[in-house]
Design a protein that fits this description.
This protein has eight helices and eleven strands. The protein has 241 residues and is α/β, with parallel strands linked by helices.
């Protein structure tokens, strides 16, 4: 096991899209994908880092699709929150089977499957070396899981929000469509907002900016990228002051 001294952070919050757990078609949950994600988180834990996670629910439901078809916004958002809980339980199962003690906490109470989110209790779980997965977003409609990640990171005293994606950083255009897309190593909060780069939604970025919380965007599937980032190496794109 690597010593804690080799980690650059004591406590981190990792934001994952629901697609990280999805099957090849981007829908549902592939247990092997969940295990692969859990293995990467376990590596970070073995550095001695306290880890919290917020997951999206896009592999089950995207509220904007329902809204396009006339669904009421709050209903669509609550459905999305429930989807994040399904993902949270799947990742908890994969982590626990890998020997990582995990707790799922939800912003919407559902005590038969998870603990209600309480800030001090979440911090206590982290101090006891448990991974904490925070489901159901903020518990309120009109807020994304990006905003939930920023909010929870500040509540628990995380030193950084790591947005783990399938892209190795932030580009000035879509690198899957534009071969000349330029990747940024560093950006300020204002630059990311003004350039509308869709790092995270504007509310989440503004929240991080107001509280000096850095955001790191990286490709979780690039071998060792998450581990190297937590060790302080230059990986992905850092958004800060």
């Amino acid at each position: 096991m690597v010593r804690l001294a080799e980690a650059a952070y004591h406590r981190v919050l990792i934001k994952l899209g629901g697609e990280a757990l999805a099957q090849e078609d981007g829908f549902g949950i592939d247990p092997l994908q969940a295990e692969a994600v859990a293995a990467r988180i376990k590596q970070v834990k073995e550095l001695g880092v306290q880890v919290a996670l917020v997951l999206g629910g896009g592999n089950f439901w995207r509220g904007r699709e329902g809204i396009k078809r006339g669904m009421e916004r709050a209903t669509a958002d609550y459905m999305g929150m429930l989807a994040t809980v399904i993902n949270s339980l799947a990742l908890m199962d994969a982590l626990e089977r890998g020997g990582v003690v995990t707790r799922v906490m939800t912003a919407i109470e559902m005590r038969s499957v998870a603990e209600p989110y309480i800030q001090r209790r979440a911090i206590r779980h982290l101090e006891k070396d448990r991974v904490v997965i925070m489901g159901a977003g903020t518990g309120n409609p009109y807020f994304s899981t990006d905003t939930a990640a920023a909010l929870r990171a500040m509540e628990i005293g995380a030193e950084i929000v790591i947005k783990a994606t399938k892209v190795d950083g932030i580009y000035d255009s879509d690198p899957t469509k534009d071969p000349n897309a330029q990747r940024f190593d560093r950006l300020t909060y204002i630059q990311s907002l003004n350039m509308r780069l869709e790092v995270m939604d504007a509310t989440a970025i503004s929240l991080c900016m107001d509280n000096g919380l850095p955001i790191l965007v990286l490709d979780m599937w690039q071998p060792g990228s998450l581990l190297r980032a937590v060790q302080g190496e230059s990986v992905g794109t850092l958004v800060s002051t």
